[in-house]
Design a protein that fits this description.
The complex is a heterodimer. By secondary structure, chain A is mainly beta. Chain A is 12% helix and 46% strand. Chain A is built from two helices and 13 strands; from the N terminus they run αββββββββββββαβ. The relative contact order of chain A is 0.19. Chain B has one domain: Beta Barrel (Porin). The longest helix of chain B has 15 residues. Classes of the chains: A mainly beta, B mainly beta.
């Protein structure tokens, strides 16, 4: 009896480690392997250059816990849509956010209207943010550039929306220096319960 | 009426078998000199697109070789067919090393010209099928078929052990890919990355006698 309990607990530990150490599927870009290849599979991965450094979509919260999922908030009242891609740059926590308006998203399924949309980030209606170390003053610096939702599709089998696209923008840091976020790409599988919130 | 299904996995061995069979069938009373080959590869990639910090990589090769002498008047000309496992690729060095290893099943078809009893030169083509890579989902990223021009030399050809060296110059692009600019715009599809490989190895002749296939 005790042996079975020991085996079961070992199995649980293995399953626990497998679940929490899930970093997404990183397929290296064939031109620059430091960032992920552009895919449309829901690999739960994103990447970009922050000037000459690499932003990767993994947040390490102690060993072995990692977190790599995005979060989307839609506000019907303000007609706003916020995408938060969590990650790190050189090991320091950092996130890339996009605050968009004019899409009037009222439900999870309506995210598919983003398919094929190339949205200019003008720093007024639509903005990109690069947030380091959860510093709220970073929201004062509005990024100008582009986000392109190349493919957004609903997978009925998993009830996921596969959100794939690219981005690039420039933003000033807290010292007024330009931060160039370039060659960004993302491929996320979004679920209504874990990654989406409506206000 | 539904079309019969073709097993694509079985295609390559089947083609190789047909090719070898036809080679023998074309020559009555044919016999072939069979050898094992093994050696190392020093390979890199040629590209139009700039690959940062690109470096060559060392791999290996091994396989079997069949050599026969089809021409009565030109006794110093022979044909070499091989079936090799060969590893090519390249690497990019950043803070971390990224190696790209492509494992091919290759079928070189070479014309061998003996300059002397001990020394011969070879040229021909190499047909290759990508069978695996060390890259996640590499078979979905890179093209599965490669064709290369081969030029090489063989020393101590008449001995049981001989050594060879050859350069394979890949002609087909490994990659069909959309370049993405800094802002995230998709540019034109590129067809790029071609193999280049220097192989050096040892050949062990199982049948030591030089066998002609004419009467």
């Amino acid at each position: 009896m005790r042996r079975y309990q020991y085996t079961n607990s070992k199995l649980l530990v293995v399953i626990f480690l497998l679940v929490i150490a899930c970093d997404g599927i990183f397929i290296p870009d064939p031109i620059d392997p430091r960032i992920p290849k552009y895919t449309e599979e829901g690999n739960n991965v994103a990447g970009a250059f922050i000037n000459d450094n690499i932003w990767e979509s993994i947040v390490k919260i102690g060993f072995p816990y990692t977190y790599n999922e995005p979060f989307i908030t839609a506000s019907h009242e303000n007609d706003s849509l916020m995408f938060k891609f969590s990650g790190n740059t050189l090991g320091k926590s950092s996130s890339i956010e996009f605050h968009l308006t004019g899409f009037n998203i009222t439900s999870f399924g309506e995210l598919v209207v983003l398919k094929g949309q190339k949205i200019q980030l003008d720093g007024i209606k639509n903005t990109g943010y690069y947030i380091e170390n959860y510093n709220p003053t970073s929201y004062n610096n509005r990024g100008i550039g582009q986000i392109y939702f190349k493919n957004v599709r609903f997978e009925s089998l998993s009830s996921k929306i596969i959100l794939s696209g690219t981005f690039g923008f420039s933003v000033n840091d807290l010292n007024g220096k330009v931060i160039k976020v370039s060659s960004g790409r993302f491929d996320y599988g979004i679920t209504e319960n874990s990654n989406f919130q409506i206000e | 009426m539904s079309k019969p299904k073709i097993n694509h996995f079985a295609q390559l061995p089947f083609q190789i078998l047909i090719f070898i069979s036809l080679t023998f069938m074309c020559h009555e009373k044919s016999k072939a000199q069979i050898a094992f080959i093994a050696g190392g590869n020093y390979s890199n990639i040629r590209s139009n697109v700039y690959l940062e910090n690109k470096k060559p990589i060392v791999g290996y090769n091994f396989g079997v070789s069949i050599q026969y002498y089809p021409f009565k008047k030109f006794k110093n000309i022979s044909i070499l067919n091989e079936l090799d496992f060969t590893q090519k690729g390249y690497q990019q060095d950043f803070e971390k090393n990224y190696s790209f290893r492509f494992n091919y099943l290759s079928l070189p078809v070479l014309v061998n010209y003996s300059l002397s009893k001990q020394f011969s030169i070879q040229t021909g083509v190499e047909l290759s099928k990508l069978i695996s890579t060390n890259i996640k989902q590499g078979l979905n990223t890179y093209n599965g078929f490669d064709l290369g021009l081969v030029i090489g030399v063989n020393c101590f050809s008449s001995e049981r052990f001989s050594c060879f060296s050859r350069i394979t110059y890949g002609l087909l692009p490994l990659l069909d890919y959309n370049e993405i600019d800094d802002l995230g715009n998709f540019k034109n599809e590129i067809h790029d990355l071609k193999n280049i490989c220097l192989s050096i190895g040892i050949k062990f002749n199982l049948y030591h006698e030089k066998i002609s296939i004419y009467k």
